[in-house]
Amino acid sequence: MHLERLTLILEVVGQKGHATVAEICAQSDLPKPTAYRLVQDLVSSGLLKTSARGQFAIGTRLKRITRSDHSDPALLEVIAPVLATGAREHGAAFFLSRLRGNWVEIIHVATPETGVSYLHPGVGKRPMHACSCAKAIAAVSPELLSHGELNGQLKRYTEHTITSGKDLAKELDFIRAKGYAECVEELERGISSVATTLGKTGVGSTLSIGATASVRVFTPPMRGKIGQALIEMSHELSSALGWDGADANMKSA
Question: Whole-number mean pLDDT of the chain?
């Protein structure tokens, strides 16, 4: 019964585009207190959002779930070839990461096929505070790191790991200014990476592309060069995916 009521509310809002609690009650025959409580539950979970004073619309989280063209396989059809080109041209491993709930996960890696040695970043979850792919996403969605449960959970992996919330906030400001994130021995000694998101809003803000290599290869000038290359790639990919480039991309340095 509870799930049916939630589904009914989502159907009403989805069909109307925007709806007030009164309109939801009129369409669903739910008592106003019940409808209001359920709407607030849906808002808190990201399935609905407040669109105007007293009105509600379908939330970003539900849109991400229902848009099949944003599934991993569909995105990789467009993104994987571009990452492969980057790996070949720069002689380093390039990767795609995606926000999964409260985690960022590397879901695809392209490696150079030129015979040069390279570092493979592996796939799987990455900490929000100690990897470029995650920090890039956190920079455009700082609320991901604003939850109280994060306090005391900034695990130290090396002596270079950021473990202070204040220092992390400064780092995210720096990332927003540059347009890309760097990780220099924060997760593992001797390893560095650079990453940027595919957009500042929407699905693009939950995806990041990046590259990784040893600190010997990814010197500060090289990281800057890779960062700019990644920004250009993000522009190309946003356009190819049909996203609004004016709104979707991070500010270029």
Answer: 85
